[in-house]
Amino acid sequence: MMARLLDDQALERSSVVANCAMNRERGLTGSNGYGRELGIDVVKMITDRLSGGAEAFDWLDLCCGAGKALLECARLVDDPRLRITGVDLVDFFAGPSHPGVEFVTASAGSLALQRSYDLVTCVHGLHYVGDKLHVLTRAASWLSADGLLVANLDLAAVLSDEGRPLRRRLTEPLRSAGFDYDARRRRVECTGHRQASLPFQYLGADDQAGPNYTGQPAVNSYYASA
Predict the structure, then answer these.
(1) Are β-strands 158-160 and 220-225 bridged in parallel, bridged antiparallel, or unpaired?
(2) What is the average pLDDT across 54-72?
(3) CA dist., res. 71 & res. 99, Å (int)
């Protein structure tokens, strides 16, 4: 039986989503840092690109929480060519501010962006998003020609209209659309700008799904085959 499903507006008012503390205090490095969760050294990636002669480096971080990791990165790189944008549903960002970092209060699914990005990340943020697949495909469209998208994605939270995890029914369409999925690490990646689509229709979200593999309450997303 399908759970009681919420639309995006109701989901954003949910206490599970609004009170999520997943990325409030997360830093760039360390046992709980971006490097460990994403499997990349963000600072090295940026400095390698800039030292190689790039005119600029743009990093977009979705569901950034307080944004401590972004401010830390800006201070470490200390290069005016680095531009970082952090997006979160809750307007509660860390300080002091840095001229290379901007914070945007918005849902990841409704962003209207005017430029492309060399790096797009989402550290555990998709756990609290309703239409996770929509955010993934939109994020791929925001990449530069050689940009990288990395996000945590739990396929156990992507369900059919019968309430069963899509898992293998989703992994092949993801690969066909240009995404690589690491089932062990629950991580999805994509390289290079693309207009991707997936053969699923979003039905709504369940904010009463309970804890996921992180131990934190999360949101299940329901889809019908398109």
Answers:
(1) parallel
(2) 95
(3) 10
Whether the CB-CB separation of 70 and 84 falls below 8 Å is answered with: yes
Residue 161 burial by Cβ neighbours in a 10 Å radius (0-12, 13-18, 19+): middle
Token look-up 């690490």 returns 185
**Angle, helices 42-51/68-77, rounded to nearest 10 degrees:** 40
pLDDT of residue 19: 63
**Amino acid type, 93:** F
**CA 56 – CA 48 distance, rounded (Å):** 12
Element (H, E) at 35: helix 34-38
State the pTM of this model. Answer: 0.95
- Token pair, residue 60, equals 């977009």
Question: Of 171, 200, 169, 199, which is closest to residue 187 (Cα–Cα)?
Answer: 171
CB atoms within 10 A of CB 55: 6
